Amino acid sequence: MGIASEVFGDALPLAERYAEFLADAGVERGLIGPREVDRLWERHLINCAVVEEAIPEGAEVVDIGSGAGLPGIVLAIVRPDLSITLLEPLLRRTTFLNEVVEMLELENVEVRRGRAEEAARELSVDIATARAVAPLERLAKWALPLLRPGGELLAMKGERAATELEEAQPVLKRFGVRTTELLQVGRGKVEPPTTLVRVVAEREPRRQSGRGRLVGKGDAKRSRKRSS
């Protein structure tokens, strides 16, 4: 819990309530497996919370296929400056998400039931996040239409991140993306560090994204201003 306290700071009590709800109602309703309860913090909450290192101040975020709220709810807890839409097509999951938002009084969160293809007609955001939703080749087709010019897809991926990025190149080229790269965030907080595939839509964003470390780029870190 020492790392959790470092990551969540004053928001730790909210994270603890969310963890308790995940371990109870989340398991009961099939949103998270019972075997995950003992590793909720490291594998799920902290793993998702460190994604905030790659998100600029005050960004509008859509969490695609939010499910149990990972990473969307976690990001809303750790970064109240963000405006977050939890996009989820299944009713039982949106019901769960609405209960969490109400329970934790998360004023920076909107739950929206629907698919990304439908939401693209109305949503235009700075950042799209996703965790365990689909291979990058498919995810890019859903996420990129939701982004403003210069917006970013931050896809949480595992060991196949580099392979998925390579396989998705034809799709990414069709969308005319500006840059793609692999980032690792959460060094010293979660092991292994969380791997993100970062895809920048159309042109470079006006704001620089956070402190995520480029894979294979030594110890250089990006920096961003944080409110006190």
From TrEMBL:
Keyword NADP among record annotations: no
Binding site for S-adenosyl-L-methionine: 65, 70, 116-117, 131
GO cellular component assignments: cytosol
Keywords associated with the record: Cytoplasm, Methyltransferase, rRNA processing, S-adenosyl-L-methionine, Transferase
Transmembrane domains' residue ranges: none
Pfam families, A to Z: GidB (PF02527)
EC identifiers of the protein: 2.1.1.-
N-terminal signal peptide: none
Catalytic EC class: transferase
GO molecular function, one term: rRNA (guanine-N7-)-methyltransferase activity
Main localization (coarse): cytoplasm
Region (Disordered): 202-228
Subcellular location: Cytoplasm
Gene3D superfamilies xrefs: Vaccinia Virus protein VP39
Role this protein plays: Specifically methylates the N7 position of a guanine in 16S rRNA.
Family affiliation: Belongs to the methyltransferase superfamily. RNA methyltransferase RsmG family.
Protein name, per record: Ribosomal RNA small subunit methyltransferase G
The organism of origin for this protein: Actinomadura rudentiformis
